From TrEMBL:
CDD domains: HsC9orf114-like. Belongs to the class IV-like SAM-binding methyltransferase superfamily. PANTHER family: CLASS IV SAM-BINDING METHYLTRANSFERASE-RELATED, METHYLTRANSFERASE C9ORF114-RELATED. It comes from the Eukaryota. Coiled coil: none annotated. This is DUF171-domain-containing protein. Pfam families: Methyltrn_RNA_3. Residues 1-37 are annotated as: Disordered.
Length: 347
């Protein structure tokens, strides 16, 4: 065999030297990010309100489904505690009777959105039991994974778990079996009908004891976990406020509009977290919050479209000098929550 060409041999040596000098890549950096780490127990909440008109421009079932999925992703990523879907359509355009067992994306978008958002919030292992086959869910394969803390992996231990009661007898013959997404169900002493969703507090690892049913907000108020979002439907913009599930309502409200003040002027960077107990951020649809006020009998006479800003504590423009003529509501949510997160981010 002929001796290797000197140039080829030199190139091989250089290539080997280069490989030797290259730093070894830490492949662990490509692993999925760490799980949610709670900061401290919290009583405060952040709510977001979105109008039904956000899906009126969607022409197909698939487009409406993916839009709902984008809203849910924004809620999950920013740890939003409540989503309110309010109807901003004219009263005379709403059908008097709606068959909720049929597809509602084109006749009752409030029902459609709350249906899909509730479906996505539920832990995947219990969706089949809690949400029977329905035309609204026919394109569920297009929906994203939210991977929230209460959607745990089977090898992950958390002090709390979402569970669903199932039929069957416990070892002692009393109490109820609860499926918590693990290989075997757990037993609780309470007697609860099957297919009931509940929140459980688990005993410490290695400690004796039984899971204990707790209030659904306990993971947040006791340990600081983001534990999914609640879903509420409102018949109008004013009902977002008047039908609040919180005892004293929302003590801080923010309305978004291209006619508002720049976010940086309303909340300067020099300011840190805001003082609130229940914050509400309201987004408009393709025609803005003015359209919602115009179609709300409670607001049309008292405020009028031009004074809608008086309904809120703050009236902000989340992206002044936008490059596109329009910003979709799902895009505005991501932009606004990115800027507003400093009001509650404790890290």
């Amino acid at each position: 065999m002929a001796p290797p060409n000197e140039h080829t041999a030199k190139r091989r040596r250089l290539d080997n030297d280069d490989e030797a000098e290259k730093p070894q890549m830490d492949t662990t950096s490509f692993k999925p990010s760490a799980r949610f780490k709670p900061s401290e127990p919290r009583e405060w909440t952040v709510s977001v309100a979105v109008p039904t008109s956000v899906i009126t421009d969607c022409a197909t079932r698939e487009q409406r489904t993916t839009y709902a999925g984008r809203i849910a992703r924004a809620l999950a990523v920013f740890s939003i505690d409540e989503i309110v879907i309010f109807d901003d359509s004219p009263l005379d355009s709403r059908p008097p009777d709606v068959d909720v067992d049929a597809f509602t994306g084109d006749v009752d978008p409030a029902h459609f959105l709350t249906h899909l958002l509730s479906y996505l919030e539920a832990p995947p292992f219990m969706r089949k039991s809690l949400f029977p086959l329905h035309p609204n869910l026919r394109s569920q394969g297009l929906l994203p994974s939210l991977d929230m803390p209460h959607h745990p992996h089977k090898d992950e231990w958390l002090p709390y778990r979402e569970g669903m009661t199932v039929s069957g007898k416990t070892k002692g013959g009393k109490g109820t079996l609860v499926d918590i997404g693990m290989r075997d169900p757990v037993a609780i002493t309470e007697s609860i009908p099957p297919k009931t969703r509940l929140t459980l507090k688990l005993p410490e690892l290695g400690a004796a004891g039984e899971p204990e049913p707790v209030h659904p907000t306990a993971p947040r108020t006791e340990a600081g976990y983001f534990w999914g979002y609640g879903v509420r439907k409102a018949g109008s913009l004013s009902q977002v406020f008047t039908e609040s599930g919180f005892e004293d309502g929302y003590d801080m409200s923010i309305g978004t509009s291209e006619r508002g003040l720049a976010l940086g002027k309303v909340f300067p960077d020099s300011e840190s977290t805001a003082d609130f107990k229940h914050l509400l951020v309201v987004f408009g649809g393709p025609r803005g919050l003015e359209y919602a006020a115009m179609n709300d009998p409670e607001l049309a006479d008292s405020l009028g479209a031009g004074r809608i800003r008086d309904l809120f504590d703050h009236w902000v423009n989340v992206l002044p000098n936008q490059g596109s003529r329009t910003i979709r509501t799902d895009e505005a949510m991501l932009i606004a929550l990115t800027g507003l997160r400093k009001l509650w981010d404790l890290s």
